[in-house]
Amino acid sequence: IIIDSHFQGLTPLNSPKEDRETLADVVAVTGLAGRAFDSWANSEGTMWLRDYLPVDIPNIRVMIYGYPSKLQGSTSRARLHDYTTSFLEALQSARNTSEVSQTYEIMLRM
Fold first, then answer.
1. Which of 57, 45, 83, 60 has the alpha carbon at shortest distance from 13?
2. Which has the closest alpha carbon to 36: 3, 4, 74?
3. pTM for this entry
4. In which element (H, E) is residue 54 found?
5. What does the pLDDT look like over 47-90, one tens digit per residue?
6. E-strand spans in 4-109?
């Protein structure tokens, strides 16, 4: 098992119950210089996307998307188009299963 503490790419935060149809995929994307997990959590480590949203809406799948968005000291030559393409490919891959192919997408941007 490999644990990614940098949360690069799509990271699922919950798994909807198998006996329920997945209603929607909620994908949270932080802005430039943000952090995929920490941008949505409070100082005690509670993350509303993981800890509260699936309780209020049980048949959704919640994911965060991380990308290298560091600004200060970065030597990256990547363009926004590059990040967008990577995101859309990751999302398509995650949704390329029969149980989620007909769900809605809900995007959260910080």
1. 60
2. 4
3. 0.72
4. helix 53-56
5. 899 999 999 988 888 988 888 766 677 777 777 788 788 888 88
6. 9-12, 24-29, 60-66, 104-109
